[in-house]
Amino acid sequence: MYENVSRALFGFKDRKTGDKLRDFFKKHTGRDIDFNGIKHYTDGFKLLLFSIPLGSVSTLGITCANGYPARKFTGPVQEFIDWYEREYLVFKDFEIIKHIPHASLEFPPSYQDERRISKILAFGKNYEINNFKMTDLFVDQLFKWVPGVEVKAKYTRLYCDVEKYRDDNLEPMSKYGQGYVYTISFDGEKMLRHFKCNGVDPDGKVDEYYDEHHAVLTSEVRKILEKKKKALILDIHSYSDEQAKHIEKEPPFPDVCIGLNEGFKNKKMLDALIRRIEEKGLSYKVNYPYSGSIMPNGLKKSELKNVESIMIEVNKRVYL
Description:
Helices cover about 30% and strands about 15% of the residues. By secondary structure, it is α/β, with parallel strands linked by helices. The longest helix has 21 residues.
């Protein structure tokens, strides 16, 4: 994903670089600047200091907005031009929400008993193994460098999968017993849900939990829209080859799966994301083995036009 920029420092002494910078600033600022005529500094190099976004231009630098973390450009000036035009301009109107629905291993207090009886009854005798296998371990740390608000599910997906449709008729994973409330575990064992433990149904508040999570996601998106910005939801996950095979997908599986909803049209955003993945030497596929990306339940149609959502599924072999 993109990085905001406070300053970019370049040193150059060749006319070709000066011409590139002249064309670049003419295009984006309307100013015609003869960079080849700028005075040489240390060891015959011309030093330029940039601040983003572009604003007023001076001999030594360009100064404008504050509040952006720094990124250094030490390579050819074309690196900076490509980044600005193919990445910065694509994302500059967006603020990011990092949606992390499957990174928790925790169960709600209603399932906390000393002998683990309620967990075993509800989720099967191998629930601890299945919980580890199905949890997107450490993805919150993996994407910590991405700026943005984090909306993270409090409890394990074994209790409630907030990513899924509540209506099983709309949820493709329900045929595997893994809708918003799981009835079949990762190892194929049937789960006993809505049983009584000491006269109480431990799942009694699952719908309330589901609704609260989506209310938070919707609220965070609206906060961005109210600032006249656009919202980008990064729907962050991880997966394993074993998980993909479990839903009848065939290898080879990519290092990164990019999930897009039907009708996604922001090709520049997708291209920028793919470039970042390829720069890391990773393979990718779009909508395979998983597809789609979450959208908030509570938004109006008029609000959705300013919201983009992209799912990122990192194969666990990449980082575990």
